[in-house]
Recover the amino acids of this structure.
């Protein structure tokens, strides 16, 4: 809970010194020269667990802002599928600890194949930081809780900085467009603070659903990685079976799981696919499931379809998971507490996974 509350500061610290007043990105610490970044024709992201979810958000951002194709891999699968890498590919290795062996081995594979590698990590001097060509540290401060929270928020922020820097160097966005996004990123700490204020509301909801056997999380676009992360947090902390799905994929299988009273958490914040999320919520309701929606404040539609709504501040869709994930973290926390679980040291998990 302490680390959830530290997120506004962690985000501020990750942004500080990396943007000028005019909104220009200053990331000399990447240590890869601009010509090399201009020659990149493909980006790979490798990561595990929560870091993978941050990477998935970054995929949407990098592709949108730079028009570079991005492939993302669960790090433990990366080198075994023989990915096509060369000197014009850029690999982003994302890891809070910087010691996750699967991510480290994926990074080594990328290096051996001639790819440039940038590490996004929270741990100064870690193996991943030492072996990468360039580093962008997240400045989340030490994270003790086994379940990643503030490092997730700062990974998304740091990866967005890398995406915007690529856009700046490659000229795929106008300086004013970059400055606009940078400005919105500086709003995030305050918006996350407002999302943390949902704590009591989430605690009451958690009391209602603490006995659930299964919980499904759904979302579209960047709501999808947010849903995956919500499900991961809940299963790690409360041991409830939780699955995250792209909302549009429900009807291709997972809809068979829906039954009377099953809690479904829907990420339904304002975005270009909002209407489609609403129709997915209606599919869920029609099967008798109970919908807990995370929506944008001021949304007057959502209340007609969802059983409960947690309202978060309006945020651009590529930045939204930073804010949306807060009530989902709080939900996992309160459900875990209500079930008497040790939320700091969940069973079977380690903070740093150094075995394959
Ligand atoms: O240290 P890393 O970011 O490389 O760790 C990756 C995963 O092991 C980690 O995110 C894990 O999924 C957390 N327990 C999530 O809360």
């Amino acid at each position: 809970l302490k680390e959830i509350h530290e997120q506004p500061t962690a985000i501020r610290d990750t942004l500080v010194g990396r943007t000028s007043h005019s909104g220009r990105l200053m990331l000399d610490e990447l240590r890869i020269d601009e010509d090399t970044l201009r020659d990149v024709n493909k980006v790979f992201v490798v990561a595990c667990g929560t870091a993978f979810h941050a990477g998935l958000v970054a995929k949407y951002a990098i592709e949108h802002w730079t028009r570079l194709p991005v492939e993302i891999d669960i790090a433990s699968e990366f080198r075994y599928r023989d990915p096509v890498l060369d000197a014009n590919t850029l690999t982003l290795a994302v890891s809070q600890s910087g010691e996750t062996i699967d991510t480290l081995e994926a990074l080594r594979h990328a290096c051996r194949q001639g790819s440039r590698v940038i590490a996004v990590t929270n741990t100064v001097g870690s193996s991943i930081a030492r072996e990468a060509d360039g580093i962008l540290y997240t400045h989340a401060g030490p994270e003790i809780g086994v379940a990643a929270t503030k490092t997730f928020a700062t990974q998304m922020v740091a990866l967005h900085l890398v995406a915007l820097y690529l856009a700046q160097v490659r000229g795929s966005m106008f300086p004013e467009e970059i400055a606009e996004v940078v400005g919105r990123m500086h709003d995030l700490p305050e918006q996350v603070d407002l999302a943390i204020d949902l704590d009591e509301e989430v605690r009451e909801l958690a009391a209602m659903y603490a006995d659930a056997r299964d919980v499904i999380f759904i979302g579209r676009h960047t709501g999808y990685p947010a849903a995956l992360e919500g499900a991961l947090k809940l299963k790690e902390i409360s041991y409830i079976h939780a699955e995250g799905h792209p909302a549009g994929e429900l009807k291709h299988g997972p809809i068979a799981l829906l039954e009377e009273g099953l809690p479904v958490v829907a990420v339904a914040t304002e975005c270009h696919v909002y209407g489609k999320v609403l129709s997915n919520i209606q599919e869920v309701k029609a099967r008798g499931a109970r919908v807990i929606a995370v929506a944008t404040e001021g949304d007057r539609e959502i209340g007609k379809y969802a059983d409960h709504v947690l309202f978060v501040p309006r945020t651009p869709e590529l930045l939204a998971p930073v804010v949306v994930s807060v009530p989902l973290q709080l939900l996992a926390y309160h459900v875990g507490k209500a079930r008497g679980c040790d939320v700091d040291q969940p069973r079977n998990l380690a903070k740093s996974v150094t075995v394959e």
